[in-house]
Amino acid sequence: MNSRVLLVVCVLLGSAIGSSARADWTQTVFPVKTHDFGTVAVASKTEFRFPVVNTFTSDLHIRSVRESCGCTTAIIETATIAPGQSGSILARFNTPTFRGKKGATLTVVIDKPFYSEIQLRVDGYIRSDMVFHPGAIELGTINQGEPKTGATKLFYAGRSDWQVLDVRSNTPWLVPSFKQTERGAGKANYELSVEVREDAPEGYFQDEVIIQTNDRSMPNVPLRVVGTVESALSIAPQSIAVGTIKQGDSVSQRLAIRGRKPFAIESIDCEGWKVDFSASEDERMIHMVDLTLTADTARGNQRVPMVIRTRGENAVTAKAIVTANIAAEQVAQAQ
């Protein structure tokens, strides 16, 4: 093989390897590159967060994002992402001003740790005969253990026989309902409600319910539901790291337990551990609790919830996490 042929082979091989490497890093840094919003109503709040994971050893910086179509607005939510951390780019479908089948390519420009451009894609269909007002059910802060309901209105203009057949949720603690409020020549109005049940888990949620209609071509339309469930009790520290101890050993800990209203503590339990605690029997907003944890039946590596329950008919519970390593006892061998 002469030197010219060898040079060409090396260039082609290097190009192929370079392309493969680029493909590999974009797949890990941008694990999701496409999203289909499906069929959505006019003015519905329709958004999707593209995750960005920094797998490099230095900061990743997103300089800009440009959209190929005004139907979508891209928002950089985390411009600088530290090594090992995650950020996001929010794609917002502009349903109030666009109609029909729409899509956009989002070109993400990175300038650190090196320059590169990566393309993301969103698509969807904005039907012009349905309008949500407001465009999503935003429930704000929800007290855990207390139900809360939010609602929106659905306005339809088109077929005289069009109707909502059902509203479904894939989340058991989100309970949707609907009722028709008006019907006339070629129009129908509905009120859609979603109740967050008492057993909703703590934390932020972003979900959706599906409105099922008798429209054969596009029967299902999503409605966004968001909120934050806050626990009735807050515990500090939230995690108790015991370390390595032997079975039967004890450790002491002081907890600060805060409630939204005055309460008294009924019990503190932790599976595998004996819990002794002292706390005021009076109802108050904050309890400083001194407790002793004794490794009872716990074995090996432990990561278990410690459940604190308040007293009374409207009792609530909260959890802290206990981590420990219970060392096995050494059994002496008879000589």
TrEMBL record:
Keywords: Signal. It comes from the Bacteria. The keyword Mitochondrion does not apply. The keyword Signal applies. Pfam families: DUF1573 (PF07610). Residues 1-23 form the signal peptide. PANTHER family: LIPOPROTEIN-RELATED (PTHR37833), SIGNAL PEPTIDE PROTEIN (PTHR37833:SF1). This is DUF1573 domain-containing protein. The lineage of its organism: Bacteria, Pseudomonadati, Planctomycetota, Planctomycetia, Pirellulales.
